[in-house]
Amino acid sequence: MTTRPEPGEFLALLTPEEAADLRTAGRTRRWERGATVMNEGETGDWVLVLTSGRVKVSSHTAGGTEVVLAVRGPGALLGDMSALDGDPRSGTVTALEPIEGLVVHDFSGFLNEHGRVAVMLMRLIVGRLRDADRKRVEYGAFDTTGRVATRLVELAERYGEQTSAGVRVALPLSQDELAGWTGASREAVSKALRTLRDRGLIETGRRRVIVYDLDGLRKRAR
């Protein structure tokens, strides 16, 4: 089932005509939760445009520690850099829930025929670089609780559902994965979540978070 793409993601920026041409150039595939969609280090000439579900993009250190680079949702374009420059993929893409996407093999050919989309893609890549720079600043300037709060704010703003109790987020990440996304140990993340709970900002459960005070969480994130 196709889900409305997230604002700012690749698919959301296409015109109806461009989106129709992209669908003509690709084919639909589905993956179950936990499936590996792309592997770090492999070469591939195809890209995936996510149409439903969420994935994590991760890399592994020499010591085997997983570092989560991003969580991406409907509309996201994945695998584009490897498809364009021919170098090995820089991250592993794993389905956090059942996903569906459009696999496009001749992505360069599609861009050659759609100059506006090529320019738009450059802007998206610049946006990713700016986001990576912001995260490097976070690691140097924020404590673990601040980094965890920042990631929870991001999830709440992107995927949160307003309820009478607060903003409910169906958290697609385990504590180990959240630790990999914040550059901290699992123990440090558990302590940070407990601190945020004690302050009355959040409630946590199995793969879910309820944010009681989003403004307060934003302030702690800063």
Order of helices and strands: HEEEEEEHEEHHHEEHHEEH
Roughly what is the average pLDDT, rounded to an integer? Answer: 90
What is the number of beta strands?
A: 12
> Main beta sheet, described?
4 strands, antiparallel
Q: Span between N and C termini?
A: 37 Å
The portion of residues forming beta strands comes to 15-25%
- How much helix is in the residues? 40-55%
Strands ordered across the widest β-sheet: 1-8-3-6
Radius of gyration from the alpha-carbon trace, in angstroms: 18 Å
Number of helices: 8
Q: Could you say which structural class the secondary elements and strand pairing correspond to?
A: alpha+beta
Low-confidence stretches: none
Shape: globular
Domain Cyclic nucleotide-binding: 10-95
Organism: Microbispora corallina
InterPro entries: cNMP-bd_dom, cNMP-bd_dom_sf, Env_Response_Regulators, HTH_CRP, RmlC-like_jellyroll, WH-like_DNA-bd_sf, WH_DNA-bd_sf
Pfam family, one: cNMP_binding
Give a structural overview.
The structure is a single chain. The chain has 222 residues and is an alpha+beta fold. Helices cover 43% and strands 24% of the residues. It has 8 helices and 12 strands. It has helices at 16-25, 80-85, 107-113, 115-141, 144-159, 175-182, 186-198, 214-221; strands spanning 26-31, 36-38, 47-52, 55-60, 66-72, 77-78, 92-95, 99-104, 161-162, 167-169, 202-205, 208-211. A 4-stranded antiparallel sheet has the order 1-8-3-6. It has a 4-stranded antiparallel sheet with strand order 2-7-4-5. Strand 11 and strand 12 (208-211) form a beta hairpin. Helix 5 (144-159) crosses helix 6 and helix 5 (144-159) crosses helix 8. The chain is globular.
